[in-house]
Amino acid sequence: MLSIVVGVTDITPFLLNLFGGGYDVSNTAIGMATFKAIISSNASKVVFGIAFSGRRKSFSRLLLIALGFIVVFNILLLFFI
Predict the structure, then answer these.
(1) Residue-level pLDDT at 7
(2) What pLDDT was estimated at residue 75?
(3) Cα dihedral value 29, 26, 20, 35, nearest 10
(4) Taking CA 38 as the corner, what is the angle to CA 34 and CA 40, rounded to the nearest 5 degrees?
(5) Is the Cβ–Cβ distance between 40 and 6 less than 8 Å?
(6) What string of DSSP letters covers 5-58?
(7) Is the pLDDT assigned to residue 50 strictly greater than 70?
(8) How far apart (Å, rounded) are the C-alpha atoms in residues 30 and 35?
């Protein structure tokens, strides 16, 4: 749950701390948390981009397609961990 919340803010410190070790967490859990943070970060970028793009529908559509593809691809990768 924390990885999803962190994905909306800044994921870099979260990931550096997670990869730094020192925790009794499996590699699978670390991988899943990483993908969830990436998915949440990209999903929030889509929302922010569309909200701040104004009336430029072509930009909103391009942003939704590009980052939407990344989000869907990361969700699919999450099932292989």
Answers:
(1) 64
(2) 85
(3) -20
(4) 115
(5) yes
(6) HHHHS-HHHHHHHHHT--S---HHHHHHHHHHHHHHHHHHHHHHHHHHSTT-HH
(7) yes
(8) 9
Residues 53/60, Cβ–Cβ less than 8 Å: yes
Structural domain boundaries enclosing 74: 2-78
- Measured CA to CA, the distance from residue 15 to residue 53 in angstroms comes to 29
Provide the pLDDT for residue 55.
Answer: 72
φ/ψ bin of 13: left (φ > 0), alpha (ψ from -120 to 50), beta (otherwise) = alpha
Q: Give the residue carrying structure tokens 């929302």.
A: 47
| Nearest Cα residue to 59 out of 50, 67, 69 | 50
Mean pLDDT of 1-28: 77
C-alpha neighbours within 13 Å on the C-beta side of residue 60: 10
Sign, CA torsion 27/28/32/33: negative
Domain count within the chain: 1
